[in-house]
Amino acid sequence: GTRVPVLLGASLITDVDDQSFCFVLDLTNRKQVEEALRKSEMRFRTVVDNLAEGLIICDANGKLTHWNSTALDLFGFSNSDEWLRGMNEFDQYFELLTLDGQPLTFAEWPLTRIMNGEVIHTCDLRIRRSDMEWNRIFSFGGSVVRDENNNTLLGFLTVIDITERKQAEAELQASQGLLSGIINSALDAIITIDGENRIIEFNPAAEQIFGYRRSEVIGRSLSDTIIPTGFQADVNDGLTRYFEIGLGRVLNQRLELTATRADGTQFPVELSATSISQDGKIVYAGFLRDITERKRAEVNLKRANDELELRVERRTSELAQINKTLKGEIVERQTVMGALRETVVQLEMAKEDSDRANKA
Questions:
Q1: Which of 104, 139, 313, 315 has its CB 3.0 to 4.6 Å from that of 160, i.e. a possible disulfide?
Q2: Residue 141 and residue 50: Cα distance in Å, rounded?
Q3: Among 119, 151, 182, where does a domain finish?
Q4: In terms of pTM, does the model score above 0.85?
Q5: Which of 52, 51, 55 is nearest to 67 (CA)?
């Protein structure tokens, strides 16, 4: 009682007593294959339409046959009717350009190249529409699919919108260019090390101050270059302790240290250091200033101050002695003046006595 799909055919054979013949073909297997194919196509379309990247498929003649929903969104199409056109009509609405703005001919378009047998892994291009203000940057890839006889069955093109990524890269590049310009024009030495105490940046000021070429120190440790011999072990221990447990007294402070030039001479430097996140890793930037002249000026200033203080002390002593002498002279003068006043009084008294005597 099982029902099965069949293909029924009938024919009248006049040569054999007008008998008719019927032919019945069991289609069960064929229907099962067709159903499996239908389900497979449904699964394929479900996967394709839910891809995060755009997918465009064309037949062997270049006729666009399918766009997934992501591709429609990327190109600004609202429904499938807008893309039902051939490749040679597509350039009426879109223009493709290199990243530096050079227009591409239709023969240079990714899908054209693919249908000509080229395999494209990554092709970044600018794209804009001629009928509206719309500009994006897409990354294209794709190839053709061939049968066992090497005949082209279809071509597929993948599309990813990388506009924001390219903008971020451009901003990062501009920022890095600005940072590089600042570092290269800085008057202070700027030395950057990684988490293994290896030098990864050495700016022109550092070259001038320490006497090394940048190529000579990149990849080497601080201890092998600018740290005096007597301090190398302490510096290595301190850096290791900081790298491992984050302890240290150097970061975000100003310290006066002794450094070594390429010729072995030691000189004073002022150091300030900070940690920076770079590509997901922590690196350490040191800003060093040669303070030899400042230290010399400080010594000269101290010497001048000491000499001035000595002179002031001597002068003060001299003034004290002069003051003492003046005080003695004043006392002596006051004594003399007192004696003179007393003599005058006595003379006046003697005169008065003389005058009274004469009158008598």
A1: 139
A2: 18
A3: 182
A4: no
A5: 55
- Three-class HEC string of 257-296: EEEECCCCCEEEEEEEEEEEEECCEEEEEEEEEECHHHHH
Residues shown for the chain: 360
Which residue, 67, 71, 65, is CA-closest to 52? 71
Residues β-bridged to residue 142: 120, 157
Give Cα separations from 62 to 111, 116, 192, 269 (angstroms): 9, 10, 55, 70
**Contact between 201 and 292 (Cβ < 8 Å):** no
Same domain, 213 and 252: yes
Residues 150 and 175 placed together within one structural domain of the fold? yes
Tens of pLDDT, residue by residue over 160-218, are 999 999 999 988 888 888 888 888 888 899 999 988 889 999 999 999 999 999 999 99
Question: What spatial distance separates the first Cα and last Cα of the chain, rounded to whole Å?
Answer: 194
Cα–Cα distance for residue pair 36/28, rounded to 1 Å: 12
| Domain assignment present for 40 | yes
Residues 6+ apart with CB under 8 A from 207: 213, 214
188 vs 278, residue with greater confidence = 188
Q: What's the rounded Cα separation, in Å, for the pair 210 and 290?
A: 9
Please state, in angstroms and rounded to a whole number, the distance separating the CA atoms of residues 285 and 237: 18
User: How wide is the angle at C-alpha 43 spanned by C-alphas 37 and 48, nearest 5°?
Assistant: 120
Pairing of strands 189-193, 281-290: antiparallel
Report, in angstroms and rounded to the nearest whole number, the Rg of the chain calculated over CA atoms: 50
**Could you give the 3-state DSSP secondary structure of residue 27?**
coil
Give the model confidence (pLDDT) of 336-347 as tens digits.
788 888 887 787
Residue ranges making up the domain that contains 2: 1-48
